[in-house]
Structures are given as C-alpha cells and as structure tokens.
C-alpha cells in the first residue's frame, strides 16, 4: 500500500507490527543486509544511557560540524515533528526524503515484520548513507544490546548514565541495565563512559571486549575555575587535554564534557575558542529550556524539561535549588514510570503541582499523581489536559512565579504546541 504523505506512512508503521516494542536484531539486521546498509558514514558514534543521551548527541553534533564535518544525527523520540529524529548537518530531513526511504524499506522487507522504531532506524541509516556524510551520531532508543541501532558497529561508544528505567525490558536492577547498555561495545572499541558507579556486569563486558574506556572523574571531567568552567580529558593518543573559559550553560556539564571527550577520542581536534563557543551555544528543545512568554500583558518565565525518571528529577531539583524563586509545576507522567522516584527529589520545590493526563494511551491517571503527592504533603490540583493546566497556572499565579513543565516528552510537547498556538512568544529562551 503506497502512501504519498508522511502522516500516512507513520500511521501505517504504527500498525504493521503486533507490538510497539519488540527487542531483537534479527529482523532489522536481515532487512538492512538486503538493502546493503552497513556503515552510514566513515565515523560512527553510538550513544546509550538512562539520561543525557539527547544533549550529548546534540553537543557532539555541534562539535563535529564546527570541525567542518558533514554530519547525521538519529535521535528519539521527537517533540513536535517526526523529522526531528533524522537530522543532516543540523537540519531535519524533509517529509519527501522520509517517505521515499520508507517506501524502499517496505519493498525490501517483503514479509519481514518491523516495528515503528526499526523502520525509522533503517530510514535514518539509508538517508545518511545517501547523503555521503563524514560522521553520524546514533542514539540508542532503549537499552543497547537488542536496540535496532546496534546493528551498526560504532567507532566510539558513549554511555551517559546507568539507572533504572524501562524495567519491563531491561530488568529491575542496575546490574541488568548495565549488561544491556554494554551491548553496544565491540572488541577494542573506544568507550567514553559518564557513569561513575559502574555495575559489575558492565565492567565485566568492558573487560571481555577489551574496550578502551575513558571514565568521567577519572580520565575526563570538569571543575569550577572562578566564574567559568574548565573541561579536561584525553586525546586519541592518551595525552592530557583541557579547555578553559566555558561560561554558564543550561545543559548538564557532565553531558557536555562527555561529548567533548568522545570528540577527542575519535582523533578530532578544534581550537580552544571554537570548543568553548560550540559548547556555550548548544541548545536542545525541551531539555532545561527556558522560555519567556507574554501572558495577559506580562512576561512570564517557563522552564521545560522532558525528564521522566528519578535520575532526571534529581538533576532538575539540584538545578532549581540554586535560587529561591517561587515555582509551580505542570506535571504528567506515563504509567510505566517510577512516580514515587520522580516526585521524591522535588518535594518542597514547588508551591503547587498542576497535574494533567498526557496525550497518550499510556498516561498515568491524574488521581494516581494526586494520591502520591498528598502522601508526601504536597499541594496539587488536577486538570483535564496539559494545555488547561498550563493556562490555569498562568492565570492564577503571580508574574514572579516560574512555571516548570516536566515529566514526559508528551507533557512538554503538548505545552509547546499550546504555547505556539497562542502566538504570544517574546523569545524562545
């Protein structure tokens, strides 16, 4: 069945496979082999981790482009448009390119059933290969060992963090999660690892593969230097390298320096000023994104963050505790996420929580959110949608109150869509 528009293709892809997630490489690898897809570029980075993948990929892409390389980046999920998942030289690919790629994959797969994510991964690899790129950055969708991205052998493997999430697929211990994420390793591969508390299963796989590991706070990292930051690491020869003068940044410095270390590990170099300029200007929509809007004639401050697990919530809490601003939360969560673990680090941070269901069949009921918060002594109020929760919050709080929208990609994307409809933006932060 042919489709002429991207919406039609995406709707079809959602229905093709019996389950949304079906871990394993056999199906996707067989179709890739039929299409002759192996390495999408001469230099490949694969990035996995419980948190921090998106900002690490974005930072690495900026550094690669600053070095004059033609780049491709594959990430998931998207905030507003599917095209965001496949970017070439910093720009999302066109609807037409995706439709053509999907059509080729549909023909090549014959009777092989593919999931939505597997179709998308093959499309990204095909488009990257066709573009004749110098380097690509591939973000693992879930886990690592059995994720569709893992059909590609990387030159540099990046692990941002190892924590509990997607437990129904990755197991309910850090040992099981660590084993799954170590699945992206290959013999003697260069590994850049931001996680400092490594599970024994992960360490065992590093040893078995004889991976050349560079670990944060041991081989690379960052530290304060007056009002700025110093980032340090090792180049491809193992020699010490450092960059000074990085100003305040909105993204986690752990992720920035991890991307920089991966860049150096690949044997790439830039002048210090180019590195500082690149890192200072990395922006990732929906990740610690501050946005100013005009509401009822007054400027209002919003903070949008897609964090949806305890590790991300703890980082958000630490960032918010640096000042004494009055804040209100607009919050929604998927049913398979750790509600108590997400809420616990943020107790006492907000004057009130505006709770909303997410535009997804997997949303957790507002009543569950409210019950958890009440037990913890937090004030909350439920609404019928993210848009309603945000509008009412803007209407009922003083102009000095910062509104923090978080808990899910669905929550942040719904808020952005509503804000865009208002056409009242002063700037995008």
Which features characterize this protein?
15 helices; disordered C terminus; 20% strand; 8-stranded mixed β-sheet; 7-stranded mixed β-sheet; 429 residues; alpha/beta
Protein described:
The structure is a single chain. The chain has 429 residues and is an alpha/beta fold. Helix content is 38%, strand content 20%. The protein contains 15 helices and 18 strands. It has helices at residues 6-16, 26-35, 53-66, 95-109, 116-131, 167-170, 174-181, 200-209, 253-265, 272-280, 310-320, 339-343, 366-375, 386-396, 409-422; strands at residues 43-48, 71-74, 86-88, 91-92, 135-139, 156-159, 190-193, 212-215, 221-225, 228-234, 240-246, 289-295, 298-305, 327-331, 352-355, 380-382, 402-406, 425-427. The strands form 3 sheets. An 8-stranded mixed sheet has the order 4-3-2-5-1-6-7-8, sandwiched between helices. The protein has a 7-stranded mixed sheet with strand order 16-15-14-17-13-12-18, sandwiched between helices. A 3-stranded antiparallel sheet has the order 9-10-11, with helices on one face. A hairpin with a 2-residue loop joins strand 3 and strand 4 (91-92). The protein is globular and about 55 Å long. The protein starts with 5 loop residues before the first helix and ends with a strand.
Concise summary:
The protein is α/β, with parallel strands linked by helices and 429 residues long.
């Amino acid at each position: 069945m042919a489709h002429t528009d991207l919406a039609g293709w995406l709707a079809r892809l959602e229905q093709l496979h019996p389950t949304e997630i079906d871990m394993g490489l056999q199906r996707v690898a067989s179709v890739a082999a039929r299409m002759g897809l192996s390495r999408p570029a001469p230099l490949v980075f694969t990035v996995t981790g419980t948190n921090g993948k998106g900002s690490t990929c974005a930072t690495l892409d900026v550094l690669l482009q600053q070095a004059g390389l033609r780049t491709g980046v594959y990430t998931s999920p998207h905030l507003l448009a599917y095209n965001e998942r496949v970017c070439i030289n910093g720009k999302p690919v066109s609807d037409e390119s995706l439709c053509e790629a999907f059509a080729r994959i549909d023909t090549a797969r014959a009777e092989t059933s593919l999931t939505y994510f597997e179709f998308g991964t093959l499309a990204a690899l095909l488009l990257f290969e066709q573009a004749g790129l110098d380097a690509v950055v591939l973000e693992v969708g879930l886990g690592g060992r059995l994720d569709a991205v893992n059909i590609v052998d990387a030159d540099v493997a990046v692990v941002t963090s190892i924590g509990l999430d997607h437990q129904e697929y990755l197991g309910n211990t850090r040992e099981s999660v660590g084993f799954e994420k170590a699945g992206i390793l290959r013999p003697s591969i260069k590994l850049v690892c931001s996680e400092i508390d490594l599970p024994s299963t992960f360490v065992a796989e590093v040893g078995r593969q004889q991976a050349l590991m560079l670990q944060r706070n041991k081989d690379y990292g960052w530290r304060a230097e007056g009002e700025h930051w110093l980032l340090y690491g090792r180049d491809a020869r193992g020699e010490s390298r450092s960059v000074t003068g990085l100003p305040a940044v909105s993204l986690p410095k752990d992720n920035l320096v991890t991307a920089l270390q991966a860049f150096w590990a690949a044997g790439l170099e830039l002048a210090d000023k180019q590195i500082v300029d690149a890192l200072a200007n990395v922006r990732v929509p929906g990740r610690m994104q501050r946005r100013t809007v005009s509401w009822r004639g007054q400027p209002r401050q919003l903070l949008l963050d897609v964090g949806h697990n305890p590790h991300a919530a703890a980082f958000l809490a630490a960032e918010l505790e640096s000042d004494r601003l009055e804040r209100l939360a607009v919050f929604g969560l998927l049913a398979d996420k750790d509600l108590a673990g997400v809420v616990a680090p943020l107790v006492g941070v907000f004057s009130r929580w505006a709770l909303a269901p997410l535009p997804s069949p997997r949303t957790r009921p507002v009543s569950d959110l409210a019950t958890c918060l009440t037990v913890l002594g937090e004030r909350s109020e439920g609404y019928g949608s993210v848009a309603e929760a945000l509008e009412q919050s803007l209407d009922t709080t003083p102009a000095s109150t910062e509104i923090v929208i978080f808990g899910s990609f669905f929550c942040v994307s719904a808020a952005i869509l509503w804000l865009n409809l208002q056409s009242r933006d002063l700037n995008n932060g």
